[in-house]
Inverse folding.
């Protein structure tokens, strides 16, 4: 049996995340989510002339070094490399064994080239990978831009993905059922195809580049237990983190090579991580708590687009119960509370806030989960504005703005800025509110894309203000 159909590797969609909350705020708050693919293809979620201010872009990356023990990081490395998201085990470690070339084909939007250049520079500097872009000829990794409709026709539940041993979308469609596209049959990486939608927002396209290129180079699995990685189906992190770069640097370290077994890699990892991350040797390891399939299934049901509300509510409660029974005190427990809050938004906003506060209390225990907290603040601050409590909203928002910038999450940054502008308006500081609102638009264009999406977000947040609602 091959893992070549229908998904050759682990799957991931942007809409299954804490970030889905950015799609809707206020008392109605959250929109529908997609269904997580069930099999084995690394994927990510699914730009336009504008009359708004110019699009903004992040400058110097600010990744934080991982703060966990090297013993825990070694366990994460093995889980990321030797298992697919479907749970299927991989018997062989694989990577590229030569300098890596990357080529872009299709109809790339203007934002792709600078984002790809920044990413490749980071991979060279932070992960030590010999990787460069070429303009023509065959490449080790081909990034082809296609429409979302084409992706959905071929893989209905995917938004972007990576496949081994193909260099074009046509080749993938022709050979998707052949063993050549099976990750479990791979012994060395020589050729990869990454397929991303050209008709996505700039941020989503960039996020696709980060995750799919990283998975083309190294890890194929996603782990809910990771608080500081893009290799996590909660999708909190939008660009490669310091942890991710360490994992990639270790992947291409001397001492490892394609064809090694898990045991052979495990024997070499401690020395490699000690050399690359000496601070990790001074941190005490923590017990590793695996994520049971029942919790993942409950989360996916709670986020399902076609699941009746009572079933979603029950699934979120099940996820919370499992998290509590597991004794978790990490972002997985917080995510369970957050899911309940999201589902309660329409019917019981006060109780939803209770769930959000419970999630926030969990997240306050660790410095690694403050970005998760920032996404919850978009919900609690919106509620404070709607209740006519602007000072409370401002106190929540201000500490989160640097986190949004550092994480390079333009959608989150723009949302927080717009919420702050609305709170300032509500507090009577109209001049500062207008300045901040104007400043948010460049980030909103990168995060939300089209003019209509940006203006829709502005109207949605403005509608929170009870004073404006009473005016019209």
């Amino acid at each position: 049996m091959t893992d070549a159909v229908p998904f050759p590797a682990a799957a991931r969609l942007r809409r299954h995340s804490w970030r889905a909350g950015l799609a809707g705020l206020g008392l109605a708050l959250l929109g529908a989510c997609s269904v997580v693919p069930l099999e084995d293809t690394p994927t990510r979620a699914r730009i336009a002339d504008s009359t708004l201010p110019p699009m903004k872009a992040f400058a110097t990356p600010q990744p934080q070094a991982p703060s966990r023990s090297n013993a825990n990081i070694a366990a994460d490395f093995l889980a990321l490399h030797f298992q697919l998201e479907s749970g299927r085990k991989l018997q062989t470690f694989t990577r590229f064994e030569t300098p890596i070339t990357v080529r872009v084909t299709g109809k790339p939007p203007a934002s792709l080239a600078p984002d790809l250049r920044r990413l490749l520079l980071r991979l060279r500097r932070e992960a030590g990978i010999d990787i460069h872009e070429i303009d023509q000829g065959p490449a080790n990794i081909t990034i082809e831009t296609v429409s979302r409709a084409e992706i959905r026709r071929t893989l209905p539940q995917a938004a972007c993905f990576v496949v081994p041993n193909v260099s074009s979308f046509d080749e993938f469609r022709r050979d998707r059922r052949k063993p050549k596209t099976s990750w479990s049959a791979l012994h060395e990486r020589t050729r990869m195809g990454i397929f991303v939608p050209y008709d996505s927002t700039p941020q989503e396209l960039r996020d696709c580049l980060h995750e799919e290129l990283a998975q083309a180079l190294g890890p194929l699995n996603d782990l809910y237990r990771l608080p500081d990685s893009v290799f996590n189906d909660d999708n909190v992190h939008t660009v490669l983190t310091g942890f991710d770069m360490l994992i990639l640097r270790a992947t291409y370290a001397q001492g490892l090579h394609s064809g090694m077994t898990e045991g052979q890699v495990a024997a070499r990892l401690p020395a490699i991580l000690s050399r690359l991350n000496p601070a990790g040797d001074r941190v005490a390891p923590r017990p590793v708590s695996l994520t049971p399939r029942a919790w993942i299934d409950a989360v996916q049901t709670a986020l399902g687009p076609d699941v009746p509300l009572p079933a979603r509510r029950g699934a979120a409660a099940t996820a919370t119960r499992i998290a509590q029974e597991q004794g978790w005190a990490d972002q997985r427990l917080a995510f369970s509370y957050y899911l309940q809050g999201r589902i309660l938004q329409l019917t019981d906003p006060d109780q939803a806030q209770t769930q959000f506060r419970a999630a926030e209390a969990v997240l306050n225990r660790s410095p690694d989960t403050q970005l998760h907290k920032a996404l919850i603040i978009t919900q609690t601050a919106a509620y404070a504005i709607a209740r006519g409590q602007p000072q409370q909203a401002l106190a929540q928002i201000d500490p989160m703005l640097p986190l949004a910038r550092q994480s390079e999450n333009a959608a989150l940054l723009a949302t927080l800025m717009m919420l702050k502008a609305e709170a300032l308006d509500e507090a009577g500081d109209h001049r500062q509110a207008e300045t901040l609102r104007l400043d948010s638009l460049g980030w909103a264009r990168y995060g939300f894309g089209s003019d209509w999406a940006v203006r829709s977000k502005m109207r949605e947040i403005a509608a929170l203000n009870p004073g404006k609602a009473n005016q019209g």
Q: What stands out?
A: Confidence is low (pLDDT under 50) at residues 1-12, 26-39, 44-49. Residues 127 and 249 are 4 Å apart (CA to CA). The radius of gyration is 22 Å. Strands lie at 43-44, 100-106, 131-133, 141-146, 160-164, 192-197.
